[in-house]
Automatic annotation (TrEMBL):
InterPro entries: D-iso_2-hydroxyacid_DH_PdxB, D-isomer_2_OHA_DH_cat_dom, D-isomer_DH_NAD-bd, NAD(P)-bd_dom_sf. This is D-isomer specific 2-hydroxyacid dehydrogenase NAD-binding domain-containing protein. SUPFAM superfamilies: Formate/glycerate dehydrogenase catalytic domain-like, NAD(P)-binding Rossmann-fold domains. One of its GO terms (molecular function) is oxidoreductase activity, acting on the CH-OH group of donors, NAD or NADP as acceptor. Keywords: NAD, Oxidoreductase. Residues 36-334 form the D-isomer specific 2-hydroxyacid dehydrogenase catalytic domain. Belongs to the D-isomer specific 2-hydroxyacid dehydrogenase family. PANTHER family: D-ISOMER SPECIFIC 2-HYDROXYACID DEHYDROGENASE CATALYTIC DOMAIN-CONTAINING PROTEIN-RELATED (PTHR43761:SF1), D-ISOMER SPECIFIC 2-HYDROXYACID DEHYDROGENASE FAMILY PROTEIN (AFU_ORTHOLOGUE AFUA_1G13630) (PTHR43761). Residues 115-307 form the D-isomer specific 2-hydroxyacid dehydrogenase NAD-binding domain. It comes from Talaromyces rugulosus (Penicillium rugulosum).
Length: 337
């Protein structure tokens, strides 16, 4: 059991949870709680000052927020999400603050969203919707189909013609592979960038990263955001892709170079792209070149980092995060990162 018998828990984004998230303490532990619907950056330091436990989804907890001056009593952070890039883990390690997450909680919803984005990009759904609503179809008639061709005057592939390259073969990557095979796609699993040989472990064969870029007609990015994956896909990688390629990013912003992606779309060196994430979030035309006015006619589908948003994910969060807190209070922390 935790050596401290009194804990104060602060939930920074209680408004996300439906039904409300609930935490209980084991016998012998006094747990006081504050649940804030949301916390703005200017409120953060004051509201977490007394916390020994912080429960957060995406609140940015940087080195200042995690300093002894701001959070002198902090012992544990329960990230109610899969990714933990919102937390300065180096500062946590230095101070001995434990951090947990909710692994695999969103696998179903994120993998489903990846496939939805694939179809949107491959079928050019956003542009099709736009030409209908803007009156272009009414004006041009059937010849509006010519707007949907790729740079080689191709009409787009069907799923059984696709080769999907999966970059990042964790829980989401594995589920995406399963769904892709169900659609008749050939699946390639990418090795680490810079490794030039095909490797096999058990029944999992990893194809060299550069070969996956060249051979795939669909690329799905599902890696965590760490220093090694920043700008993993940039100008050189886009140049290696075929004109048939659609790029799907359901990982984190910053892994795909947004300026390089925009250039590839404008030059039609790839067929299209779809992203659920941006380098700076919430994103706008002021923070991302992908949202500038001149991108409206590109085959680019976006969503506001809500690939995780589903009933099953919420149920998992409402189970896993309280369990992580309870186990920390018992002195047996779970799902530590």
């Amino acid at each position: 059991m935790s050596t401290t018998t009194n804990h104060h828990l602060v939930v920074t984004q209680a408004g996300v949870f439906s039904p409300p998230i609930q935490f209980t303490a084991p016998p012998g532990i006094k747990l006081t709680q504050e649940h804030f619907k949301d916390i703005t950056p200017d409120q953060l330091h004051e509201r977490i000052h007394k916390a020994s436990i912080i429960v957060s989804c995406w609140t940015r907890l940087d080195s200042v927020a995690l300093s002894e001056a701001v959070t002198p009593n902090l012992k544990f952070i329960a990230v109610t999400a899969v990714g933990t890039d919102s937390v300065d883990l180096a500062t946590c390690q230095r101070r001995g603050i434990l951090v947990s997450n909710c692994p695999a909680a969103n696998v179903e919803s994120v993998s489903n969203h990846a496939m939805a984005l694939y179809f949107a990009a491959r079928r050019n759904v956003v542009q099709m919707d736009r030409v209908v609503k803007d009156g272009v179809w009414h004006k041009e008639g059937p010849s509006v189909a010519l707007r949907m061709k790729d740079s080689n005057q191709g009409l787009g592939l069907t799923s059984e013609e696709e080769t999907v390259g999966i970059i990042g073969f964790g829980s989401v990557g594995k589920k995406v592979a399963q769904l892709s095979k169900g659609l008749g796609m050939k699946v390639l699993i990418a090795g680490r960038k810079g490794q030039n040989e095909t490797t096999k472990k058990g029944d999992i064969e990893r194809t060299p990263f550069e070969d996956v870029l060249k051979r795939s007609t669909v690329l799905i990015i599902a890696v965590p955001r760490v220093p090694e994956t920043m700008n993993l896909i940039s100008t050189a990688e886009f140049q290696a892709m075929s004109a048939d390629t659609v790029l799907i990013n359901i990982s984190r912003g910053g892994i795909v170079d947004e300026a390089a992606l925009l250039q590839a779309l404008k030059e039609k060196s790839i067929f299209g792209a779809a992203t659920d994430v941006f380098e700076t979030e919430p994103a706008s035309a002021a923070t991302s070149p992908l949202l500038a006015e001149d991108t409206r006619n590109l085959n680019l589908t976006t969503s506001p980092h809500l690939a995780w948003y589903a009933n099953k994910t919420m149920k998992n969060y409402l189970t896993i995060s309280p369990s992580n807190v309870h186990n920390f209070l018992l002195g047996k922390p779970t799902n530590l990162v």
